[in-house]
Amino acid sequence: MLERLGLPPDVFDRSADEQRREVERREGLYRSGQDGLELRGCSVILTDDGLATGATMKAAVEAVRKAEPRRLIVAVPVAARVTADEFRGMLRGPGEEFICLYEAEALDGVGRWYDDFRQIQDVEVGELLDAAAC
After folding, report:
1. Run means of pLDDT, 10 residues per run, the chain, 134 residues
2. Of 90, 96, 97, 109, which is least surrounded by CB within 10 A?
3. Do the Cβ atoms of 104 and 110 come closer than 8 Å?
4. What per-residue confidence (pLDDT) applies to 101?
């Protein structure tokens, strides 16, 4: 892909390093030095503002499955129809479910489905995580 885009590998490597540092920064901030939530035997609802390709949500589903929750639900307000179909096929295990309010033929950007698409601030994420419990 890098060759097709005409990008040298070091551009990708620098960008990947920046993103890795940002993930580590947020993880440290959001977890406040604590371990992750214990999900085994819990009901877990994964949600997002919408699914275009669903790549991030697929990674989240796989990570949560490893924690062996009692129930796993993916709930989104909007998704590309093809992506919704993929999730319905993927979430077929016991206690697994996919909920989507609207499936779009073409989802050219999740933000266009919202009147207000502001990003949530780190402080609010931390407050929500602090309040979360199984």
Report:
1. 78 89 85 79 95 94 96 97 97 96 90 90 83 67
2. 109
3. no
4. 97
pLDDT confidence of residue 44? 96
Give every CB contact of residue 72 below 8 A, 6+ residues apart in sequence. Answer: 44, 46, 61, 64, 65, 91, 93, 95, 96, 97
In the chain, what are the helix, strand and coil shares in percent, each to the nearest 5?
Answer: 45, 20, 35
3-state class (DSSP) for residue 107: coil
Q: Please report, for the chain, the start and end positions of each structural domain, with discontinuous segments joined by +.
A: 1-35, 37-131
The CATH-assigned architecture of domain 37-131 is 3-Layer(aba) Sandwich (3.40)
Torsion sign (Cα): 55, 61, 62, 64: positive
Integer angstrom CA distances of residue 128 from 111, 121, 124, 131: 22, 11, 6, 5
CA 76 to the chain's CA centroid = 10
Tokens describing residue 86: 């993929």
Helix or strand (DSSP H, E) at 119: none
